[in-house]
Every structure is written in structure tokens, then in C-alpha cells.
Amino acid sequence: MSETERLRFQDFAFHRLPSGRCSAKVVLSWADGRQFTGESDGVISQAGELRCCAEATVRALERVVQPKMGFELVGVKAVRAFDAIVVIVSLSVRQEARASRLVGAYLAETDPPRGAALAVLNATNRILGNFFATR
């Protein structure tokens, strides 16, 4: 897979709504201009906001790889480690008849919700690289 064949993190939007809910939108793009959008909503809390953003990324990824592969968000958490905020995600991936677990992390000092979206991409980088290489 060459550099131009890579899936890119194109756009990210996260909003806290007056209703006590939040919404996230993630756009991934392919070198040929195709875009894959995922959206999610959740409750305003640290855990709810992180889950909302991670779930939006999972939905965008699934638009890229379905029906051959599917992802499920198992969990997402922000932890303080080495004087920094690290967002960690756990995903389950289904490919053909087998399932496996993936873990990704992102150093998210100033924007943990965006960090949750990027942690999902970090978790899936290798498996997506293999997926695109065999297409």
C-alpha cells in the first residue's frame, strides 16, 4: 500500500448540546476523493463524550470496510499517565469467521474527545493496512 492509498482523518466535529447530550461527526477520506462519514451522539460526561467520538469513528470505518469487516467499540477511557492524558480504546474486529481484539491509544492533552477518535484509528491502522493491501 503506497502513501497515496492511505485512509486519512479528514474532518472532526464535536458539539455539546444544551439538552445534556453531545454529538460527533468524523469524516475519513480516500486518495481518490471518496469520503466516509460516521456520526454518533451520547450524554455529556467524560465517558459519554469519549464514547460518542470513538463510536463516530467506528461508524465511518465500517462504511469503508463493510461487509468484509466489522468493528465494535468495547470501551474507551482517558487515563493520566506520565503527566499526560492518554485516551485508550478497545475494539472487537470481525473478519470472515474470526474475531479479535484491538487496542489503540492517543496522547490527548488538550482535546480528549478528538483523541478518542484518533485512538480508534491508531487501533485499526495495521489491520486496515493489511485489508487494503489484499484488495
> Percentage of helical residues?
25-40%
Structure annotation, total helices: 2
Strand order of the largest sheet: 1-2-3
Mean pLDDT: 91
Order of helices and strands: EEEHEEEH
Shape: globular
Unreliable segments (pLDDT under 50, ≥5 consecutive)? none
Largest sheet: 3 strands, antiparallel
Radius of gyration: 15 Å
- The CATH class name reads Alpha Beta
Strand content: over 45%
Query: For this structure, what is the CATH homologous superfamily?
Result: Alpha-isopropylmalate synthase LeuA, regulatory domain
Q: Helix/strand-derived class?
A: alpha+beta
CATH architecture: 2-Layer Sandwich
Cα-to-Cα separation, first versus last residue: 10 Å
Kindly state the number of beta strands.
Answer: 6
The CATH topology turns out to be Double Stranded RNA Binding Domain
Tally of separate domains: 1
